[in-house]
Structures are given as C-alpha cells and as structure tokens.
Specification:
- The structure is a single chain.
- Helices cover 0% and strands 41% of the residues.
- With 169 residues, it is an all-beta fold.
- It has two domains: 77 residues, Elongation Factor Tu (Ef-tu), domain 3 (Beta Barrel), CATH 2.40.30; 59 residues, Beta Barrel (conserved putative lor/sdh protein from methanococcus maripaludis s2 fold).
- A five-stranded antiparallel beta sheet has the order 1-4-3-2-5, with no helix packed on it.
- Strand 8 and strand 9 form a beta hairpin.
- The radius of gyration is 24 Å and the shape is elongated.
C-alpha cells in the first residue's frame, strides 16, 4: 500500500544524458549551442566521452551573478558510459585555429601595453610586436608579427632589451 504523492520508482533514461555545469561570467560569451565538448569521469580513467552544448543559460544561477548554467548532452553509446549522479570534468571546445602559429604565454612581453615577443635574428634579440588571437591553456595564437619557424625567446626575456646578444643551444 502506497500513500498519495510518495515516490515509488525513479526511472532513468540513459540513451541521452545531460551534464549540468556552471560557466564563469568571463567565459560564457565563448559558449554557443552545438559546440563540441569532451568529458572525463573518474570511473573511466584515460577515456574521453564526447557531447555537445545543449543549453546555455541567459540568467545567472547565483546571487552574486558570476556563473551561468550550461548543459552538455551526450547521446548514443557514449551516454551508456555515464550514470546518473556522476561527476564529470568537461572541456568545451569554444574556438580553434588549425595550423596556427602559437607561442607560450611566458614568451609574451608587453611593450607600452602592446604584446610583443623577442625573436632571435643572427644571435641578436629583436623585440617584435605581435597581434594575439585565441588563448588555449598556456599558449597564444599569433595572428600577425611572427612567421612559422622563427626562434622565439621563452626564458629570460624579461631582462632582455631590443638588440641584446643571445646564445642558445
């Protein structure tokens, strides 16, 4: 005998799974519907699960207003790897640039608040202004100011001056 309103069963459909997450205010502008996402769960170390951005909240979910709700949906066979209540680490692939020139974040110095890098030309460090694009982890895409294959100083550049002699191995 069951009383009215009492839960008898909980039915879960794992043919598609929605993963709920919060995105910081400074990053939410990069997230769009349909973007690919990669998930990792502790129960399957070393494996990745693929999904897509399903919803992007337009209203903050906290009283301080610094994060927004986003749902990633995983469908098909990959959804079967997930269980209700699991914790997933999620990467949303907001932007990419295949074949782009990139430099380490540490290589970038500011010259009058304009980004620049030191390029080695015939044993001399030359400060060269660059235009930066996408930041991915510890690397920046270089849109202009640098050619593929040029040697960029990535250590000790904070104490360099344009025209300094450099040695490298």
């Amino acid at each position: 005998m069951v009383s009215p309103g009492r839960e008898v069963a909980n039915i879960v459909d794992l043919s598609s799974v929605r993963v709920k997450l919060s995105i910081a205010e400074e990053e939410i502008g990069k997230v769009r519907l349909g973007q690919p996402a990669t998930l990792r769960v502790d129960s399957r170390p070393g494996e990745t699960i693929h999904g897509t951005v399903y919803t992007v909240g337009s209203k903050t979910e906290t009283t301080t207003g610094h994060s927004y709700p986003v749902e990633v949906i995983v469908r098909g066979k990959e959804a079967a790897q997930l269980r209700s209540g699991m914790f997933a680490r999620t990467d949303i692939h907001a932007r990419s640039a295949k074949g782009a020139i990139a430099v380490a974040k540490e290589s970038v110095v500011s010259s009058d608040s304009r980004p620049a890098v030191f390029v080695v030309e015939n044993g001399i460090a030359r400060l060269r202004p660059v235009t930066l694009g996408i930041r991915a982890g510890d690397r920046y895409q270089v849109l202009s100011g640098l050619q593929a294959g040029e040697l960029v100083v990535s250590f000790g550049q904070k104490s360099l001056k344009d025209g300094s002699a450099v040695q490298y191995k």
